[in-house]
UniProtKB/TrEMBL annotation:
InterPro entries: Aminoacid_DH-like_N_sf, NAD(P)-bd_dom_sf, SDH_C, Shikimate_DH, Shikimate_DH-bd_N, Shikimate_DH_fam, Shikm_DH/Glu-tRNA_Rdtase. This is Shikimate dehydrogenase (NADP(+)). The keyword NADP applies. NADP(+) binds at residues 82, 130-134, 153-158, 219, 240. Keywords: Amino-acid biosynthesis, Aromatic amino acid biosynthesis, NADP, Oxidoreductase. It comes from Thermodesulfovibrio aggregans.
Amino acid sequence: MITGKTKIIGIFGDPVEHTLSPIIHNEAFKYLGLDYCYVPFHVKKKDLKNAIIAIKALNIKGVNITVPHKEAVIQYLDEISDEAKYIGAVNTILNNEGILKGFNTDAQGFILSLKEESILIKEKNILILGAGGAAKAIVYGILKEGGKVYIYNRTLSKALEIKEKFANLGFIEVIPHIEQSINEKVDIIVNATSLGLKKDDPLPINPAFLLSKHIYYDIVYPETLLMNEAKKIGCKVVGGIGMLLWQAVEAFKIWTEVEPPVDVIKKTLNKVLTKY
């Protein structure tokens, strides 16, 4: 029941119609008896500054930030965690009595989702598709865990910026073109772009480049065309639901200082996903 004391949590993104974050957090709030409510806000690029200002004006307790705002939002915040500052992207904001602090829980969410699938990335060769906010967090997480990164992005300069940013953490190489020789070298391919959110999106990579030995990881959920193609080829496929879950766990703790009921959230997500 929403009352005058209910704390509001939200998500800012474009699009947000697909998001399962409200289901995750509202189920956790209900189970724990916390007086919070999580709602989606469709925020376009031109409105991002006003939306961030509104967090203070409306006394919103916190928000998630999703595509395409994870990098642009930084300029409007009062404080940023060391990790978010290093990564250069924010996906979680806490409003602490009018002070907005940004965090990044994507890196931890990505790593935990792999570990849940018994996938260790130490010394693995990993191809990252994309160079946006999510890609930065994923590259950071991989390098911290001892993996080797190859990164491809249509705009080469953005990929080169990521290489320069994280080169001191470990091995990272920019790939100007996707070639068979690269695919034979890598163990894991990660789609860190938003391609696949819309039905008419182009594929982030030609399925012909996938090999049965690959693990194909897609941050988009619940399932994309390329995930289906990868399964046909014989790849182990990991969708974005795991990363969504574990980044949400970390964000939940930032907002509430309470551990969320992970098993309850998983059961709820499984029920929802069977409807897709």
